[in-house]
Amino acid sequence: MVGGALQTLIAKLLVTVQAVTGYPLSTTSPEVSFVPHAWFEEHVCTGHCAVLGFLPPGKTIYLDDRLDPLHDLAAQSILFHELVHYAQAQSGAFTMLPDCLAWHEKEREAYDAQLRFLQQLNAGPDVYERLGAHAPLEPCPD
């Protein structure tokens, strides 16, 4: 992925994250690391999974190396979703909630923001088809 072009896109998307979510604009940008899908199956899921982006604690977003956010709106929206998580982390949002509930609220907010982002860009039905429906969140234990 072209470094300067990707950094420009990240900066632009961070401004959009601020506009869509109201989170303060971060003074730092996260790193983006493109990894093989097997990385997600090893580090995020237990075996086969549909995860294409992940932000663990820290400042590195991991994206599936098959994604091209510079040229594909569906891939760009996945990066946008992860940048919402980055803004959440930078702002300290949801830290007062129990871990599972906080995770649910972060995901709900990131998916809602991703949908608004795609709507603002008048994404066609093909983009939504390629993204598919996100898996329902597992209920939190009592």
CATH topology tier name: Zincin-like
Question: How many domains?
Answer: 1
Major sheet strand order: 1-3-2
CATH class: Alpha Beta
Query: How big a fraction of the residues is strand?
Result: 5-15%
Strand segment count:
3
| Ends distance | 43 Å
Structural class: mainly alpha
Structure annotation, total helices? 5
Give the overall shape. globular
Major beta-sheet overview:
3 strands, mixed
- Given as residue ranges, the uncertain stretches (5+ residues, pLDDT < 50) are none
Tell me what the CATH architecture is: 2-Layer Sandwich
In helices, the fraction of residues equals 40-55%
Radius of gyration: 15 Å
Question: What average pLDDT do the residues reach?
Answer: 92
What's the order of the H and E elements? HEHEEHHH
Structural features, described:
- It is a single chain.
- The protein has a single domain, classed as Zincin-like.
- 52% of the residues lie in helices and 8% in strands.
- It has helices spanning 3-21, 37-43, 73-91, 99-120, 125-131, and strands spanning 31-35, 53-54, 60-64.
- Strands 1-3-2 form a three-stranded mixed beta sheet.
- It is globular.
